[in-house]
Amino acid sequence: IIPNAWLQVLNKSNPLYNFLADIKIKQESYSNQKKLLDENFSNNIRLNDKNLKHYLSETKRDNKIACLVSSGPSLNETKTWIKNVREQLYILCVGSALKVLLKEGIKPDAVIISDPKKNIIQQLEGINFDGVLFYLSTANYEATSNYSYTRYILFQSGFKKAEEIAKQNNIPLVETGGSVATTGFSTLKFLGFDTIVLFGQDLGFKENKTHATF
Q: Which residues contact 208 (CB under 8 A, 6 or more apart)?
């Protein structure tokens, strides 16, 4: 329990400030979306999709380098780099970067989504993509159920219902860190890649842009 009053009086130079503030933000985010997360989880479980264990046992990976592609504005410049070495790579992209890659003629091996809100549906609409979909157990159910190709559900640390099912079935948990990119990184780490290269994972707003364009 971290009362807001504590954060208000704690000096921001205190080494604990950022740590406590991060925890508080996650608590408030979960509290505000709890009903939606629970609904998505219940519906996604009913899809009876496979999980990370199945993917690892069913998929042969010859490439040892993975690319995690996010949709930061730098992707506008760096996306062409992927083309020349595409065959050497395993590409996992976040949902918001999928259309950017496809327009460039780059088909990723898999796409990952985690947002519980309905607006994430548009990331998978109107596209010619039949690759793998990884989705967080609390991701928007309408988006996951509408995807008609191969799907794998991810169970996350920090969500009690997901942790319980993972424990019962010996399924690995992924770390979310509050972002789909962190979830993707955790997924690639579990899959055992030796090297993970980040694209579009901006820590700033290049030319005042928040996302790459397609």
A: none
